[in-house]
Fold each of these.
Amino acid sequence: MELTKRYYSISEVAQMFEMNISKLRFWEEQFPTLQPKRDRAGDRKYTQDDIKHLKEIVELVDGQGYTIEGAKKALEGKKKKKNTNQAVIDKLIEVKSFMTFLRDSLEKSENGELNEEDEID
């Protein structure tokens, strides 16, 4: 399924997933993370991210046989894991930045370019 448009109507999304519109509306109630934007007329407009999220839900519920509560917990667990991974990535970026600073300071020191404000505390 290649997504080429910026927004999709509820009928287009229902057709993509071969389900009826009422099921999509029901899942919006059950999964608070699935909240498509609405236009001025109140019609739902699904973004590509909404559709990717819906695809995860469909895979869990219809593909793997999860209950709705089970799918909610699985998605929540995935989000927590993602947040944990981000914390590790942030720390690694911080360490890399410090190591780069140390390397640059050592190179300046070797070349006799080290100023008082460049000194390592």
Amino acid sequence: MSSSVSTARPVAPAGEVLREIPLPPYVTGEDAQFAVRAVVVHAPQNWSGGTICRNDASPHPCRLHRWGRRVLTLRGLRPAEIDALIERGDPAADPRPHRPGA
């Protein structure tokens, strides 16, 4: 007689926030492109129950949106510049180049 045990991934209890996605050790141009895509694709959408992520309907800001904002901030973009990228709605938009000391 053989028994098989299946393991399931643990599920976070309701209301518990999942851990943040780790930041890269230094932000490359490729990281910045992924971050632009993350903030544009996972943009906020108003819904009857509140503001949700328009990509996966999780509460906004979702993990990927938060990660994208943190990466773009490390790249030297200001919050208003990140908001402008989101408003433009182009996930392939080229973020401004890194400004040393910014």
Amino acid sequence: MNDDFNMSMRKFLKQVGVTSQQAIEGALRDKGAAPGQSYEAKVVLTVEGLDLEHVVTGKIGSGS
């Protein structure tokens, strides 16, 4: 993989991480999530042209 490819992938993944965190935090605020509450999360990444579907699951807690 060349440097341009690596940089574009890092930029995309950073954008995914930042915008996803903002969306989750906004949803928690809108819901008025109680301290200690946790939520099951799932991310599905697809890449057109590569026949890639990558699924990540986990638990997100709203904090205390």
Amino acid sequence: MGRTEFIIAMSIVLFIAFGLGWFASWLVHRLTRVTQAEISDLDSMARSLHDAEEARDEAITYFQQRERDLTNQLSQTEAELRAAMDGLRDARAEGEELRAYIERMNARG
């Protein structure tokens, strides 16, 4: 095989390789092409996801506020309970003192 024949054979092989590469690229592009309908679906899914995230954030904010309100209400109720228990303890002590005073007065007279 002479030099000219080798150059021609190499040119043919390179041209065939180029053609096969171009065809493979075209085929991959054709098979993986994103259609307008798919883009619309992706846009609607993105909007739905965004709306769901906003709803989640609003729910979290609502529940955090509700938790603060309930915690404050519980603290107030506990304070009122302590005050009522202190008042009841004082009233019992005063009742016992009055009972003891009455018994002492009855014992004298």
